[in-house]
Amino acid sequence: xxxxxxxxxxxxxxxxxxxxxxxxxxxxxxxxxxxxxxxxxxxxxxxxxxxxxxxxxxxxxxxxxxxxxxxxxxxxxxxxxxxxxxxxxxxxxxxxxxxxxxxxxxxxxxxxxxxxxxxxxxxxxxxxxxxxxxxxxxxxxxxxxxxxxxxxxxxxxxxxxxxxxxxxxxxxxxxxxxxxxxxxxxxxxxxxxxxxxxxxxxxxxxxxxxxxxxxxxxxxxxxxxxxxxxxxxxxxxxxxxxxxxxxxxxxxxxxxxxxxxxxxxxxxxxxxxxxxxxxxxxxxxxxxxxxxxxxxxxxxxxxxxxxxxxxxxxxxxxxxxxxxxxxxxxx
Length: 331
Fold this sequence. Notes:
Elements (H helix, E strand, L loop, with lengths): L1 H39 L8 H10 L15 H4 L6 H4 L6 E7 L2 E8 L3 E2 L3 E10 L7 E10 L5 E11 L2 E7 L4 E12 L12 E10 L7 H8 L5 E9 L2 E3 L2 E5 L3 E8 L9 E6 L4 E6 L3 E7 L4 E6 L18 E7 L1
């Protein structure tokens, strides 16, 4: 009887000791994971312009370093990047580009002619020299009046998906302005590159004086007497446009009324919409209604697509990369 009690006690003791060892190892692993997470999540979210400048100085030695790229599925590697030359035309926009090591940063200015006091839109694209899509990107933008040296605008922490972000700004007066862009990329979400690889680029824009900004579309409409207004409701969801084929006639004023679903995908705040070769590229915030107007001035068949990542980088083409449609402009 005593022997059985001793054996039972030894078994209970062994089990209890094993549980203590497992719990201890799990606690150690969790502590290390928390420490690593705290370390790897030092990112640009709370950086100010001054701190970005310091980061740039600290990482100057890495400006030409090879940057690891996000792992992409072969089908995604073959999907076209919605860069400026694909989406915009030189007659309606100004496409500026700078190659820095393995990264290409691009700033598209629209309209092509900027008038003081009137808003202009700038689309920033960041991608690799081997045409690889990037997952996250961060931009810090500063605007300096070249004549006075005054910094008229500082916008830190502009975050983009698919390497694309955009903003609008109304320049206070005519003249030449320097656009300072500090940028970096994030791969393998949610961890930023360690150590940080911060790079810079400069672009110059010219601003003209004028009492009014003659909108390109309005100007073209006035040149054509009473164009036909083609109003089309478009439902935007994960992952598609409905309808995904839009047919209009040359000379129509196309009015797309977007209703973007507020669905349950938590990875993004909306979708992009761009028409290749038609100088159209906008961001559609989910849960909102937005209208985009343009004059169908070029006949032909054009692809429109989501231009902002709305799924994981390794998602199948049925998700973000398959979110496309066709615009047909009949002669």
